Amino acid sequence: MGFDYAGKVRSLLALAESERALGHDDAADAATAKAMRFMADYNIAQEEALAVDPTTVVPTHLVMDLNIHDWQVAGYVPSIVRHIAFHTNCMVKVEYLNAGYRFTLVGYDLDLRHAEFLITSAYLMFSTRIAPEWDTRRSEAENIFFLRNAGIERREIAERAWGRGAGDQAKNRSKVQRIYLRECATRGEDVRAAGLGFDTKQYREGYAQQFVDTLARRLREARNAANSVGALPALAGREDRVKMAFQELFPPDAPVAVRVTDPTKECAKCQRAKTTCNDHIAWRTRTWTKRDQIESDRREYSASARAGRASGQHAAEAVMVQRGHTTASRLDASGKAIES
Predict the structure, then answer these.
(1) Which residue has the higher pLDDT, 143 or 196?
(2) Are residues 45 and 130 in the same domain?
(3) Which helix (H) or strand (E) holds 305?
């Protein structure tokens, strides 16, 4: 199995997303179908190897670097990868890089390739819909549509479109919104990033969180569907072997006993104050206020938050969860689905 199935699948998925972003749906569908065929061929080859001698299959690992330059939503990426790692019976180590994350996944090769396939699909969708960059292959109107639909502020979009300082002018910010609305109408898309009092922060948080939640739900439904198939257990003890392989790569740190004392008990100023002094404000007990409740309700129920969640669900529903092959699901000794 010297053919680089994973590399081919990655390139085809990237091509599919690029073509779809440009409005070339037929080309995108063709690239997606080809990626699914390559993944199915790889799975069949692995199943044949397992049937010959299961004892020769041992856990291994792969490393994926995912770069997200948008700090507002970058923190949601590890959650996406963790959900997929759990779904595919892999373990994952998360490390922070200057411009993103490094994920080291440990598991059986078949499961790792499944995880890589899902992560690539989810990451491409997340990075192009929620954290898009200005793409010179797109028209100005298309770029503005994707950036504004992701909740990027009009000022920032104007800067990217027409240069530094362009966002300071109200006419340019208005122009961004007019182009966005016109592009929504051309595409037949719902207008999400608009309305009186539109809050980009609430919209983007709702967008990213709903993407994660919807993807997690779809993965859970796929596992439930796999568990309903009367498959025979295979590779008993695989979970323990994966844990052992993970600990060999990343030995658990020795526990360090840390004694934490309350500094306010020995602080004269704190003792005189009703709560704590300003030097120990981090130790101050804070009660939930009416203002806190208003902010919480706004984050949950505002029009911006609802629009963001609708966008997040729509994007996550487009992620390819199924691998596209028809071999029977395999379950480990604990009954967890290995394939969906």
Answers:
(1) 143
(2) yes
(3) helix 303-317
